[in-house]
Design goal:
Layout lengths: L3 H14 L20 H15 L14 H18 L4 H16 L5
Helix pairs in contact: 1-2, 1-3
């Protein structure tokens, strides 16, 4: 199954290497199969950050070995960035309204 982030990662690698998009597979090793140096990986990550408006953690760059690994890292950061903008105050507001309704009920004698 291919999704948007898979296509973006493959397209970025293909553009950087100057190769055909269809020749890149998720199981390809970035250094051995695609002949990428560490600087190439950093440049690809910077291009991905610009394309997706996210910031990938530098500490995880050494752990990126395959195209699927890079896609997984982008997917995790993209998902965490998406959840960071969800309003956290909504459940608190609903709890406050429910508490006020309980207080306003007439007391039985």
């Amino acid at each position: 199954m291919s999704d948007h982030l898979d296509d973006v990662v493959k397209r970025t690698i293909a553009k950087h290497r100057g190769i055909d998009l269809k020749s890149i597979h998720p199981f390809h090793d970035l250094r051995r199969d695609l002949h990428l140096q560490p600087l190439d990986i950093v440049l690809i990550v910077l291009a991905l950050e610009d394309a997706e408006q996210i910031e990938l953690p530098i500490a995880h760059f050494d752990a990126i070995l395959t195209v699927a690994g890079l896609t997984t890292l982008v997917r995790r950061v993209h998902a965490s960035a998406r959840h960071a903008y969800e309003p956290a105050f909504v459940p608190l507001y609903r709890r406050f309204r429910r508490a006020r309704r309980l207080v306003r009920r007439p007391q039985e004698v």
